[in-house]
Amino acid sequence: LKHAELAMKEAKNESLHDPHYFDYYLMDKLLERVQIEKKLPRALAEGEFELFYQPKINLETRTLTGLEALIRWNDPEQGRISPAAFIPIAEDSGFIVQLGEWVLREACRTNKMWQDAGHPKLPVSVNVSAIQFRHPQFVKTVESALQETGLDPKYLELEVTESLLNEPVMIKDKLDFLKSRGISLSIDDFGTGYSSIYYLKELPLQVLKIDRTFIQNTPTSTRDNSLLLSIIQLGKSLGLTVLAEGVETEEQFHFLRQHGCDQIQGFYFSRPLDSCSTAQLLAAHSD
Ligand code: C2E
Ligand code: CA
Ligand code: CA
Ligand code: CA
């Protein structure tokens, strides 16, 4: 790794004097990846990761229905690094298994802490990468996170992406088992992957989360509106709770409410909050 990094640094320096900008750009990206990959284990050991929580809202009652845990990396040199920049790298290197285990435990621990403090009891949802889900120890990891933190499984939700649903044989037993334990399962980023409707129907899922790209141009684009409506109807006809992600405006909120969507998440109601602000939000919803 050291050699590769040195070689890349050299190549980068040379390419600086080179008109082939594209090569330089690629080299830079590659170098950055190698550096992030190298720093991840230390960052975990040093406690540089933190969970933020984004509220989920019932459209009808405008009340809190849950919280999604979203990871943040507070790097001492670079400041806060977004998950989009390091999760894919952690997935490629396999480190996501360890990191995901930390997220699970931390989300369960924090949720239990809020419950013990007398806040309203809400489910916390945790994003699970396909690589993490496929790992033979995954179910065991979930069990031990629940056991060690004492969180009731009904207050844990797992969000998996659509691509995973294309491996129904491999995942069905795990999903069935998790469901039997009372853990709720959501399909994340719906509409961006390719999943068979047959599997959607056969697998034990509870929530369909419509990807933000379908909400973005609503309600100004009539084409997107009808697409969005079809997805809501699909979800409802499969008996799922339908949640729209990335809701930013009042107009989007009203459109979704009018058309039978159950829940929303998005900047319109709240950005993801650190655990302190989340506790304050929970306290404000106590009565
Ligand atoms: P996601 O699961 O689809 O999470 C939603 C993302 O949309 C979050 O970005 C959130 O901050 C952002 N968002 C929420 N409301 C709005 C809105 O109204 N407008 C816009 N423009 N964006 C909104 P974030 O926190 O940067 O996370 C990005 C992705 O990183 C997540 O997408 C998820 O795929 C992944 N991720 C985050 N935390 C974890 C984790 O603990 N484990 C795994 N495996 N992946 C994670
Ligand atoms: Ca998610
Ligand atoms: Ca999502
Ligand atoms: Ca997404």
Q: Catalogue the unreliable spans.
A: none
Distance between the termini: 55 Å
Helix tally equals: 11
Q: What class do helices, strands and sheet pairing give?
A: alpha/beta
Largest sheet: 8 strands, mixed, barrel
Bound molecules: ligand C2E, calcium ion
Could you give the count of β-strands? 9
Tertiary shape: globular
In which order are the strands of the major sheet placed? Answer: 1-2-4-5-6-7-8-9
How much is the average pLDDT?
A: 92
Measured as a percent range, the helix fraction is 40-55%
Tell me the series of helices and strands, N- to C-terminal.
HHEEEHHEHHEHEHEHEHEH
Q: What integer value in Å does the Rg equal?
A: 21 Å
User: Which strand-content bin applies to the residues?
Assistant: 15-25%
Organism: Fontibacillus panacisegetis
Domain EAL: 33-286
Protein name: PAS domain S-box-containing protein/diguanylate cyclase (GGDEF) domain-containing protein
What does this structure look like?
32% of the residues are buried. The chain has 287 residues and is α/β, with parallel strands linked by helices. The mean pLDDT is 92. It contains eleven helices and nine strands. α4 runs parallel beside α6. Bound molecules: ligand C2E and calcium ion (3 copies). Ligand C2E binds next to β2, α3, α4 and β6. One calcium ion binds next to loops.
Question: Could you outline the blueprint of secondary structure elements for this entry?
Answer:
Layout: H1 2-16, H2 21-45, E1 49-58, E2 64-75, E3 79-81, H3 83-93, H4 96-116, E4 124-127, H5 130-134, H6 138-149, E5 156-161, H7 168-180, E6 184-190, H8 197-202, E7 207-210, H9 222-237, E8 241-244, H10 250-258, E9 263-264, H11 275-284
Parallel strand pairs: 2-4, 4-5, 5-6, 6-7, 7-8, 8-9
Antiparallel strand pairs: 1-2, 1-9, 2-3
Helix pairs in contact: 1-2, 2-3, 4-6
The structure holds ligand C2E and calcium ion (3 copies).
One calcium ion is lined by residues 188-189, 209, 245.
